[in-house]
Amino acid sequence: MLIKKSEIEKLSANIRRIIDGEDIDIRDNREGVWKILKNDIHTLASLKNEQVANLQQERDTMKNTLENISHQIKTPLTSMLLMTDLLESAPQDNSEKSAEFIANIKTGLMRLEWLSTMLLKMAKLDAGAVEFSRSRIQSSELISLALEPLQILIDVNNQRIEILGNVELFCDKGWTAESLSNIIKNASEYSPTDSVIKIEAGENPICGWISVTDSGTGIAKTDIPKLFKRFEGSRSDKGFGVGLPLALGIMRGQNGDIEVEGSTFTLKFYESD
Asked: Which of 42, 113, 124, 131 lies 20 to 30 Å from 90, alpha-carbon distance?
């Protein structure tokens, strides 16, 4: 097959335009190897453009994430710096006021520690660096593990945990306890003092499940989609909006899910991968 020099020059010019970022169609409907070559180049260019678009989207996502993290860290840091200044200027004989400032600083530091831990865990999930080791475990054991880091919070709020049912579940014990702990923490924060948080376990023909029901006012259906959006889902000025997204990421990472209805969050566990 004889190919004219002008056609080669035209193809070469179009390739340079594609390299420069132009979106042009160089496909050819004629038969022969020339058509195959041009169509293959077009396919290669399309793949290149798609990769560039994906990289730009990843950069934008990373930029927004870093901006959100910076904002979330800056808020408690600013508060602690203010408390430090007030502590330095407080009268030496006012031990009660000094103790209040120190308590506020400690609270801020604990919130920062919790945030950094959650962000590291989310980063592991995003990077695919988590290998879930699923095994059979009783829901009662999982609930006990999830409650351990929350005892102080629950005691301070004078809340009571009511546990109903016990079933065998198939999941990663450590990571799932982390997911459940975040759900219970959310329930505690949005339940009144002296209230009850109900944790119930059960199963049906499709899945095993653990539900957590708080004593709050419940969540409107229109607000449910944003609950699991990072840095957006917090219903409190004290929240960061990372606990629930992490909980969902952990469950979906091992073929599970979380559903919300009113004041009840239900973790669902499926047998198959």
From this structure: 113
